[in-house]
TrEMBL record:
The lineage of its organism: Bacteria, Pseudomonadati, Bacteroidota, Flavobacteriia, Flavobacteriales. Pfam families: EamA. This is EamA-like transporter family protein. The keyword Membrane applies. Gene3D superfamilies: 1.10.3730.20. Keywords: Membrane, Transmembrane, Transmembrane helix. InterPro entries: EamA_dom, EmrE-like. It comes from Flavobacterium aquaticum. GO terms for cellular component: membrane. The chain crosses the membrane at residues 6-22, 29-49, 61-78, 90-110, 116-133, 145-166, 178-199, 211-229, 241-261, 268-285.
Amino acid sequence: MIYLLLSILFNAVLFVIVKLFAKFNIDALQALVVNYFVAFLVGLFFLDTSIVPNEIMNENWFKGSILLGFVFISTFYATTLTSQRNGLSVASVASKMSVIIPISLGVILYNEHLGFIKIIGIALALIAVYFTSKKETGEVQQASNLLYPILVFFGAGTIDASLKYLQTFHVPSNQIGLFSSVTFFCAFSVGILTILFLTLRGKIQFSGRNILGGIALGLPNYFSLYFLVKMLEAKAFESATLFTIHNISIVLVSTFVGILFFKEKISIRNAFGIGLALFALYLVTY
């Protein structure tokens, strides 16, 4: 349970930092690339074993880390485009609704059983995500813009499902820190190639504030992933229940942080979503 709470806490910290990006005019893509490198360095600092590149490349989880590195930054970029074209609420809903992907795979791959009450709780949680996240007008105005919310949905779902699969079958308990570090380095590698490509096309202007933003994001980002994998390893709940609790709790905490620190206002629709989310949490942990 402590790993679940810590993962939710660090995800809430990420929410605060990303919200501050807009206030300080920080380029999110540049900051994210720096953040991945910082998260990699943080992971190295906390490792109690030496790194041998040849041995890492022979680990069963290494190819999974490469995949996750690509999906991490691709999903973020799709989220950014979704926010710009369709609104932040559409991006948030698409990301959190993706919990249905690891839930489905949990039932299929790990033979997890969902009772009637839990199924109702999960369904209510998905509805609650929509109502709680819908803080602004956001809609898919053109058919071509439907692509980006779909990419966010599948990208976020792939991340959660892949982490669960790798943790279950390939990542030993004593290598979670190493796995997290290598995954962030893979994400950084993909990101730096993207930055170089955009620089050559004249679409990037570098700024010191972007580096500072990335540094601030890197530390909590590393621990958000580390404790997520530790949470999955602990097996306090079945993965379907765990991902539901995790995602809906992040939505709730992020909403309350927005109200307390960013003076965000909630509508009746948001308040209904919060109440529904709390009831859904009760049902899935019943």
